[in-house]
Amino acid sequence: MSPIQQILQRRAAEDSALLLHIASEKPSASDLAAWGRITLKRARRMLWVVKVLGRALLTKLTSRHLSYDEIDIIASGLNKLTGTDTDRVKLVDDFCEQAAKVLPHELEQHVKQTVATLTAHRNHPRLAFNKTADANNHLYFQGAGPAELVAAVETELVATANALRTDNMKFSEAMFHALVRKVLHPSGKTTDPFLPYRNCYVIVLDPTLRYHADGKVMTTTGALVDVKDLVNQELQPYGYAVAYALSTGGDYEHVGTYGVQRFFNQHQRFVGSLEHPICAYPGCDRPAKTCQAHHVQAAALGGPTLLSNYAPLCAVHNGQNDDDPSKPPKNGRIEFDPATRVPGLRRFPGDPLRYNLNPVTIKGIRRYLAYLRGEGYAASFRD
After folding, report:
1. Residue 20 main-chain phi, psi, to 5 deg
2. Is 246 domain-assigned?
């Protein structure tokens, strides 16, 4: 056992014993913060955990050698059952058995599912708004509802947000504007309000090529290509272009506006969710339909907006991803398995890919085919 493992195991045992002593001595949050050199927030959280569990349950949890994080997860679950006739002792026994077999994030999922089952009859959708603005004149609101309904709302907002988003706009800001658009101006229009203010570049295409009225262009080799593809090559450094051509009367007329696709469209996201049903990050269970569409090769580094470069990542893990492989690694980055094209996390260069082994992932088309062939990551699902 390495020194790190020894220290972590000893610390886990001491943390659970510490909670038991807090239950006996009842220190204040400020004293606890000063003695332990921890933040007041953490001290208050520890006192809250002790209050929720009580001495009897803490004694049971301490005897099972659970870590502080595991005890915190269990306390959060039990707190949601306040006022019910649930047998808390029996439930804690069940949680302890699970904790001995799984990792903390899997225990958290089990606790959430158990609590959801026990409280399904008394949970109702809700939405609340704060009445007082903060220093920036912002009001806050929050709500809760059935997961399927909230996911559908989020998916609808994501589509509008992608249409409204500009290069310098954060996705969360675009989501707010999308909500305002849907509620206050439910016209269904997704025209970019910032389009009139973008820079415009005039690009002269090769006059030696033959341009047809159906949008095809004959190259010097005799091949026919779509004018959109030709224009996209020219406008790649700029983002979009407006095309003009000579009319039969000899005047210039607008024939189309073309742009390099920066965001995955709804069709690509739909097909992508069939291949990858949940967030590609190991241990995450966020459904793909509510994830952000991640460019495995970053768009800023020339990555194309194609399904071959798509992986769903939730907002948290997409924000953590090391997009630029040339920079020193911080959190790791999502990469494709070269054989199966299944996305996985490479923590450091040279490390093996770690995959999301949630059973739901095997439902994805690409992974199920890999499973049938017994390739790479998918072989871990076999009995």
Report:
1. -65, -40
2. yes
The span from the CA of 80 to the CA of 122, in Å, is 11
The answer to whether residue 128 is domain-embedded is no
CA distances 332 to 78, 324, 341, Å, are 34, 10, 18
Dist CA 94 CA 71 (whole Å): 13
Do 293 and 333 lie in one domain? The reply is yes
- Other CB atoms within a 10 A radius of the CB of residue 349 amount to 10
Number of domains in the chain: 4
| Angle subtended at Cα 145 by Cα 312 and Cα 70, rounded to the nearest 5 degrees | 70
DSSP string computed for 297-352 = S-GGGT--SSGGGEEEE-HHHHHH----TTSPPSS-EEEE-TTT--EEEESSTTSP
Judge residue 359's burial from the number of C-beta atoms within 10 Å of its C-beta, 0-12 exposed, 13-18 middle, 19 or more buried. exposed
Strands (E), 154-235: 210-211, 216-218, 224-226
pTM: 0.41
Count of beta carbons in the 10 Å neighbourhood of residue 124: 7
- Provide the domain limits for residue 17: 3-118
pLDDT string in tens for the chain (383-residue length): 788 988 988 888 888 889 999 999 999 999 999 999 999 999 999 999 999 999 999 998 888 888 999 999 999 999 988 777 788 899 999 999 999 899 999 999 999 999 888 887 666 788 888 888 888 888 899 888 887 788 888 888 888 888 888 778 888 999 999 998 888 877 655 445 444 445 555 666 677 778 777 778 887 667 777 776 666 666 655 555 566 666 666 666 666 665 556 678 778 888 888 888 999 999 898 898 888 889 999 887 888 888 889 999 998 898 899 999 989 989 999 999 888 888 999 999 999 999 998 888 888 887 777 677 665 555 555 43
**CA–CA gap between residue 263 and residue 361 (Å, rounded):** 24
Q: What is the DSSP letter of 245?
A: E
The secondary structure element, H or E, covering residue 371 is helix 365-373
Question: The tokens of 299 are what?
Answer: 């768009």
Domain identity same for 110 and 162:
no
In a domain, 12, yes or no: yes
- Other CB atoms within 10 Å distance of the CB of residue 247: 10
- Angle among Cα 336, 109, 282 to the nearest 5 degrees reads 15
Say if residue 305 is in the same domain as residue 359. yes
